[in-house]
Amino acid sequence: MMLAVQDLEVRYGGITAVRGVSIEVAEGETVLLVGANGAGKSSLINAVIGLVPASRGSVRFAGADISAMSCDGRARAGMGYSPEGRRVFATMSVADNVLSGACGRGGAAQREAWSWLCGLFPILQERADQPAGQLSGGQQQIVALARAMSSFPKLLLLDEPFLGLAPVWIAQISEAIRHMQKRGTTILVTEQMARPALSLATRGYVLRSGEIRRSGTASEIRDVALAEEYL
Ligand SMILES: Nc1ncnc2c1ncn2[C@@H]1O[C@H](COP(=O)(O)OP(=O)(O)OP(=O)(O)O)[C@@H](O)[C@H]1O
Ligand SMILES: [Mg+2]
Protein backbone atom coordinates (compact mmCIF):
# COMPACT_ATOMS: atom_id res chain seq x y z
CA MET A 1 0.00 0.00 0.00
CA MET A 2 1.38 3.43 -0.92
CA LEU A 3 -0.63 5.20 1.78
CA ALA A 4 -2.47 3.68 4.72
CA VAL A 5 -4.19 5.95 7.19
CA GLN A 6 -5.45 4.06 10.20
CA ASP A 7 -8.02 5.29 12.75
CA LEU A 8 -6.93 8.90 12.32
CA GLU A 9 -8.20 11.65 14.58
CA VAL A 10 -7.47 15.38 14.13
CA ARG A 11 -8.54 17.85 16.79
CA TYR A 12 -8.35 21.62 17.07
CA GLY A 13 -8.84 22.29 20.76
CA GLY A 14 -12.36 21.06 21.49
CA ILE A 15 -13.27 20.52 17.83
CA THR A 16 -12.78 17.05 16.37
CA ALA A 17 -12.36 17.57 12.61
CA VAL A 18 -11.50 13.96 11.69
CA ARG A 19 -12.72 11.05 13.79
CA GLY A 20 -11.51 7.50 13.37
CA VAL A 21 -10.85 7.67 9.64
CA SER A 22 -9.07 4.85 7.82
CA ILE A 23 -8.24 5.13 4.13
CA GLU A 24 -5.91 3.31 1.79
CA VAL A 25 -4.34 4.34 -1.50
CA ALA A 26 -2.59 1.64 -3.52
CA GLU A 27 0.33 2.35 -5.81
CA GLY A 28 -0.79 3.91 -9.09
CA GLU A 29 -4.33 4.63 -7.88
CA THR A 30 -6.12 7.97 -7.92
CA VAL A 31 -8.36 8.22 -4.88
CA LEU A 32 -10.96 10.95 -4.35
CA LEU A 33 -11.93 12.31 -0.97
CA VAL A 34 -15.22 14.10 -1.39
CA GLY A 35 -17.27 16.04 1.13
CA ALA A 36 -19.05 19.32 1.81
CA ASN A 37 -17.59 22.40 3.50
CA GLY A 38 -16.06 21.50 6.83
CA ALA A 39 -16.27 17.74 6.26
CA GLY A 40 -12.61 17.38 7.25
CA LYS A 41 -10.95 16.96 3.84
CA SER A 42 -8.14 19.45 4.43
CA SER A 43 -7.59 18.24 7.98
CA LEU A 44 -7.09 14.70 6.68
CA ILE A 45 -4.74 15.78 3.84
CA ASN A 46 -2.81 18.05 6.20
CA ALA A 47 -2.37 15.20 8.67
CA VAL A 48 -1.02 13.03 5.83
CA ILE A 49 1.56 15.64 4.77
CA GLY A 50 2.33 16.46 8.41
CA LEU A 51 1.06 20.04 8.65
CA VAL A 52 -1.33 19.20 11.48
CA PRO A 53 -0.68 16.60 14.17
CA ALA A 54 -2.89 13.56 14.58
CA SER A 55 -4.26 13.14 18.07
CA ARG A 56 -4.80 9.44 17.40
CA GLY A 57 -4.06 6.89 14.70
CA SER A 58 -1.23 6.32 12.27
CA VAL A 59 -0.06 7.23 8.79
CA ARG A 60 1.98 4.68 6.86
CA PHE A 61 3.71 5.62 3.62
CA ALA A 62 5.23 2.97 1.35
CA GLY A 63 5.21 0.55 4.25
CA ALA A 64 6.84 2.78 6.88
CA ASP A 65 5.10 4.43 9.81
CA ILE A 66 5.69 8.15 9.26
CA SER A 67 3.38 9.40 12.03
CA ALA A 68 6.32 11.02 13.84
CA MET A 69 8.05 12.37 10.72
CA SER A 70 8.20 16.13 10.01
CA CYS A 71 6.45 17.72 7.06
CA ASP A 72 9.85 18.26 5.39
CA GLY A 73 10.78 14.64 5.96
CA ARG A 74 7.56 13.48 4.33
CA ALA A 75 8.21 15.73 1.32
CA ARG A 76 11.73 14.28 1.01
CA ALA A 77 10.30 10.77 1.32
CA GLY A 78 8.25 11.40 -1.82
CA MET A 79 5.05 13.30 -1.03
CA GLY A 80 4.05 16.30 -3.14
CA TYR A 81 1.37 18.63 -1.82
CA SER A 82 -0.78 21.32 -3.39
CA PRO A 83 -2.71 23.24 -0.71
CA GLU A 84 -6.31 24.41 -0.85
CA GLY A 85 -6.92 27.89 -2.22
CA ARG A 86 -4.00 27.63 -4.68
CA ARG A 87 -1.64 29.25 -2.22
CA VAL A 88 1.38 30.67 -3.99
CA PHE A 89 4.13 32.96 -2.71
CA ALA A 90 2.62 36.13 -4.19
CA THR A 91 5.77 38.24 -4.44
CA MET A 92 8.04 35.42 -5.60
CA SER A 93 8.44 34.76 -9.32
CA VAL A 94 6.54 31.96 -11.01
CA ALA A 95 9.80 30.04 -11.56
CA ASP A 96 10.86 30.36 -7.91
CA ASN A 97 7.42 29.25 -6.75
CA VAL A 98 7.56 26.13 -8.88
CA LEU A 99 11.15 25.28 -7.94
CA SER A 100 10.50 25.79 -4.22
CA GLY A 101 8.82 22.39 -4.48
CA ALA A 102 12.07 20.87 -5.71
CA CYS A 103 14.43 22.62 -3.30
CA GLY A 104 16.85 20.28 -1.65
CA ARG A 105 17.35 18.59 -5.00
CA GLY A 106 20.39 19.29 -7.17
CA GLY A 107 20.55 21.95 -9.87
CA ALA A 108 20.37 19.36 -12.65
CA ALA A 109 17.22 17.78 -11.19
CA GLN A 110 15.68 21.25 -10.84
CA ARG A 111 16.44 22.14 -14.47
CA GLU A 112 14.97 18.83 -15.59
CA ALA A 113 11.80 19.47 -13.56
CA TRP A 114 11.50 23.01 -14.89
CA SER A 115 11.78 22.08 -18.57
CA TRP A 116 9.40 19.13 -18.14
CA LEU A 117 6.83 21.35 -16.40
CA CYS A 118 7.18 24.14 -18.98
CA GLY A 119 6.47 21.56 -21.68
CA LEU A 120 3.30 20.60 -19.85
CA PHE A 121 2.27 24.14 -18.94
CA PRO A 122 3.62 26.73 -21.43
CA ILE A 123 2.24 29.48 -19.19
CA LEU A 124 5.10 28.79 -16.74
CA GLN A 125 7.70 29.69 -19.35
CA GLU A 126 5.76 32.75 -20.50
CA ARG A 127 5.37 34.10 -16.96
CA ALA A 128 8.56 32.70 -15.43
CA ASP A 129 9.84 36.02 -14.03
CA GLN A 130 6.49 37.56 -13.08
CA PRO A 131 5.38 37.64 -9.42
CA ALA A 132 2.95 34.74 -8.97
CA GLY A 133 0.47 37.01 -7.19
CA GLN A 134 -0.20 38.82 -10.48
CA LEU A 135 -1.55 35.69 -12.17
CA SER A 136 -5.23 34.77 -12.56
CA GLY A 137 -6.78 32.16 -10.27
CA GLY A 138 -6.47 29.40 -12.86
CA GLN A 139 -2.87 30.30 -13.60
CA GLN A 140 -2.05 30.30 -9.87
CA GLN A 141 -3.55 26.83 -9.55
CA ILE A 142 -1.23 25.68 -12.36
CA VAL A 143 1.71 27.14 -10.40
CA ALA A 144 0.60 25.38 -7.20
CA LEU A 145 0.16 22.08 -9.04
CA ALA A 146 3.50 22.43 -10.84
CA ARG A 147 5.20 23.11 -7.49
CA ALA A 148 3.72 19.90 -6.09
CA MET A 149 4.85 17.98 -9.19
CA SER A 150 8.35 19.48 -9.35
CA SER A 151 9.86 16.94 -6.96
CA PHE A 152 8.50 14.05 -9.08
CA PRO A 153 6.56 12.79 -6.05
CA LYS A 154 5.50 9.18 -5.55
CA LEU A 155 2.32 10.40 -3.89
CA LEU A 156 0.63 13.61 -5.00
CA LEU A 157 -1.78 15.22 -2.52
CA LEU A 158 -4.15 17.74 -4.11
CA ASP A 159 -6.51 19.71 -1.90
CA GLU A 160 -9.44 20.99 -4.00
CA PRO A 161 -7.49 21.71 -7.20
CA PHE A 162 -10.68 22.71 -9.08
CA LEU A 163 -12.21 25.02 -6.48
CA GLY A 164 -13.64 28.17 -8.03
CA LEU A 165 -12.06 27.63 -11.44
CA ALA A 166 -13.58 28.22 -14.88
CA PRO A 167 -14.17 25.11 -17.03
CA VAL A 168 -11.19 25.90 -19.26
CA TRP A 169 -8.84 25.67 -16.24
CA ILE A 170 -10.58 22.59 -14.88
CA ALA A 171 -9.87 20.93 -18.23
CA GLN A 172 -6.19 21.93 -18.15
CA ILE A 173 -5.70 20.74 -14.61
CA SER A 174 -7.51 17.47 -15.35
CA GLU A 175 -5.14 17.02 -18.28
CA ALA A 176 -2.11 17.54 -16.04
CA ILE A 177 -3.47 15.07 -13.49
CA ARG A 178 -3.98 12.50 -16.28
CA HIS A 179 -0.39 13.06 -17.30
CA MET A 180 0.79 12.31 -13.74
CA GLN A 181 -1.38 9.18 -13.75
CA LYS A 182 0.33 8.00 -16.93
CA ARG A 183 3.69 8.47 -15.22
CA GLY A 184 2.47 6.07 -12.54
CA THR A 185 2.04 8.70 -9.82
CA THR A 186 -0.26 7.78 -6.96
CA ILE A 187 -2.76 10.57 -6.24
CA LEU A 188 -5.04 11.51 -3.37
CA VAL A 189 -7.32 14.39 -4.36
CA THR A 190 -10.04 16.16 -2.37
CA GLU A 191 -13.02 17.95 -3.85
CA GLN A 192 -16.27 19.46 -2.79
CA MET A 193 -17.58 19.57 -6.35
CA ALA A 194 -17.24 15.90 -7.19
CA ARG A 195 -18.04 15.83 -10.91
CA PRO A 196 -14.69 16.64 -12.56
CA ALA A 197 -12.73 14.72 -9.93
CA LEU A 198 -14.90 11.60 -10.24
CA SER A 199 -13.87 11.26 -13.87
CA LEU A 200 -10.21 11.06 -12.79
CA ALA A 201 -10.53 8.79 -9.77
CA THR A 202 -10.48 5.03 -9.59
CA ARG A 203 -11.96 4.93 -6.08
CA GLY A 204 -13.18 7.31 -3.47
CA TYR A 205 -14.42 8.06 0.01
CA VAL A 206 -17.30 10.31 0.99
CA LEU A 207 -16.52 12.26 4.14
CA ARG A 208 -19.14 13.91 6.33
CA SER A 209 -18.58 15.57 9.71
CA GLY A 210 -15.13 14.03 9.94
CA GLU A 211 -16.24 10.46 9.27
CA ILE A 212 -16.26 8.18 6.23
CA ARG A 213 -19.87 7.75 5.10
CA ARG A 214 -19.29 5.76 1.96
CA SER A 215 -16.42 4.23 0.05
CA GLY A 216 -16.08 2.35 -3.20
CA THR A 217 -15.26 2.65 -6.87
CA ALA A 218 -15.90 5.98 -8.59
CA SER A 219 -19.19 4.68 -9.98
CA GLU A 220 -20.27 3.20 -6.63
CA ILE A 221 -19.84 6.48 -4.76
CA ARG A 222 -21.02 8.74 -7.57
CA ASP A 223 -24.61 9.30 -6.40
CA VAL A 224 -23.71 9.88 -2.77
CA ALA A 225 -20.80 12.12 -3.76
CA LEU A 226 -22.95 14.30 -6.02
CA ALA A 227 -25.71 14.54 -3.39
CA GLU A 228 -23.09 15.79 -0.92
CA GLU A 229 -22.52 18.87 -3.10
CA TYR A 230 -25.94 20.21 -2.19
CA LEU A 231 -25.64 19.89 1.58
N1 LIG B 1 -7.18 25.67 12.37
C1 LIG B 1 -8.41 25.31 12.78
N2 LIG B 1 -8.83 25.64 14.02
C2 LIG B 1 -10.06 25.27 14.46
N3 LIG B 1 -10.94 24.56 13.74
C3 LIG B 1 -10.56 24.21 12.50
C4 LIG B 1 -9.29 24.57 11.95
N4 LIG B 1 -9.21 24.07 10.70
C5 LIG B 1 -10.37 23.44 10.46
N5 LIG B 1 -11.20 23.52 11.54
C6 LIG B 1 -12.53 22.91 11.67
O1 LIG B 1 -12.41 21.52 11.40
C7 LIG B 1 -13.51 21.07 10.62
C8 LIG B 1 -13.00 20.47 9.33
O2 LIG B 1 -12.40 21.49 8.55
P1 LIG B 1 -11.59 21.20 7.22
O3 LIG B 1 -10.97 22.47 6.81
O4 LIG B 1 -10.73 20.02 7.41
O5 LIG B 1 -12.77 20.80 6.23
P2 LIG B 1 -12.80 20.74 4.65
O6 LIG B 1 -13.58 19.53 4.29
O7 LIG B 1 -11.45 20.89 4.10
O8 LIG B 1 -13.69 22.01 4.27
P3 LIG B 1 -13.62 22.98 2.98
O9 LIG B 1 -14.39 22.29 1.89
O10 LIG B 1 -14.31 24.23 3.42
O11 LIG B 1 -12.19 23.19 2.63
C9 LIG B 1 -14.44 22.26 10.43
O12 LIG B 1 -15.41 22.21 11.42
C10 LIG B 1 -13.51 23.45 10.63
O13 LIG B 1 -14.23 24.55 11.13
MG1 LIG C 1 -10.57 22.17 2.85
Structure overview:
This protein has a single domain (3-228), classed as Rossmann fold, CATH 3.40.50. The longest helix is centred in the C-terminal third of the chain and has 16 residues, at 167-182. It has 231 residues and is an alpha/beta fold. β4 (56-61) and β5 (64-65) form a beta hairpin. The chain has helices at residues 41-49, 71-77, 94-100, 107-120, 122-126, 137-149, 167-182, 194-198, 218-228; strands spanning 3-12, 15-25, 30-34, 56-61, 64-65, 79-82, 155-159, 186-191, 203-208, 211-217. The radius of gyration is 17 Å and the shape is globular. The chain has a six-stranded mixed beta sheet with strand order 6-7-8-3-9-10, sandwiched between helices. The mean pLDDT is 93. The structure holds adenosine-5'-triphosphate and magnesium ion (MG). Adenosine-5'-triphosphate binds next to β2 and α1.
Brief digest:
This protein is 38% helix and 27% strand.
What profile does the largest beta sheet have? 6 strands, mixed
| Name given to the CATH homologous superfamily | P-loop containing nucleotide triphosphate hydrolases
What series of H and E elements makes up the topology?
EEEHEEHEHHHHEHEHEEH
Read across the widest sheet, the strand sequence of neighbours is 6-7-8-3-9-10
How many helices in DSSP terms? 9
The CATH topology comes to Rossmann fold
| Average pLDDT level | 93
CATH class category: Alpha Beta
Proportion of residues in β-strands: 25-35%
Distance between the termini: 32 Å
Bound molecules: adenosine-5'-triphosphate, magnesium ion
Helix/strand/pairing category: alpha/beta
Question: In the residues, how many domains can be counted?
Answer: 1
Work out the number of β strands.
10
CA-atom Rg in angstroms = 17 Å
CATH architecture: 3-Layer(aba) Sandwich
> What does the overall shape look like?
globular
Q: What portion of residues is helical?
A: 25-40%
